[in-house]
Amino acid sequence: QVQLVESGGGLVQAGGSLRLSCAASGRTFSNYAVGWFRQAPGKEREFVAAISTSGGSTYYADSVKGRFTISRDNAKNTVHLQMNSLKPEDTAVYYCAASGIGYIGSAYTAYDYWGQGTQVTVSS
């Protein structure tokens, strides 16, 4: 089992920045790839970004490429999502998820463990 807890969400104006954190406990965190997803009211869950077990590979959705950066610190069992140049359409609940097979794609079914989510609201 891996327990994931997101933090860092909040209310920010368009053009602003937020840094989300995903803290993990349980099994060896460095064995898991981690992804971030988001879900806005009335919309389907959407892939945002993912990072490999070592942090050497990353993958981003086109909608956030160049604005968001995913990183991880395996010594601290933490993954971060730095979000810059935020837009109102980035408003959603953001979830981190861990994949035991090291998957860093957009298929949410490949992720085994999920956090409870953190709300991000971007005002115009």
How would you describe what is shown here?
The chain is mainly β. Helix content is 0%, strand content 51%. It has strands spanning 2-7, 10-13, 18-26, 33-39, 46-51, 58-60, 68-73, 78-83, 92-99, 113-114, 118-123. Strands 2, 4, 5, 6, 9, 10 and 11 form a seven-stranded mixed sheet that branches. The protein has a four-stranded antiparallel sheet with strand order 1-3-8-7, with no helix packed on it. Strand 5 (46-51) and strand 6 (58-60) form a beta hairpin. The protein is globular.
Low-pLDDT regions:
none
Number of helices: 0
Global geometry: globular
Helix content: under 10%
Please report the total strand number as a whole number. Answer: 11
Structural class: mainly beta
Strand content: over 45%
Q: What number is the mean pLDDT? A: 96
Write the layout of secondary structure elements.
Blueprint: E1 2-7, E2 10-13, E3 18-26, E4 33-39, E5 46-51, E6 58-60, E7 68-73, E8 78-83, E9 92-99, E10 113-114, E11 118-123
Features:
124 residues; mainly beta; 7-stranded mixed sheet; 4-stranded antiparallel sheet; 51% strand
Brief write-up:
The chain is built from no helices and 11 strands. With 124 residues, it is mostly beta strands.
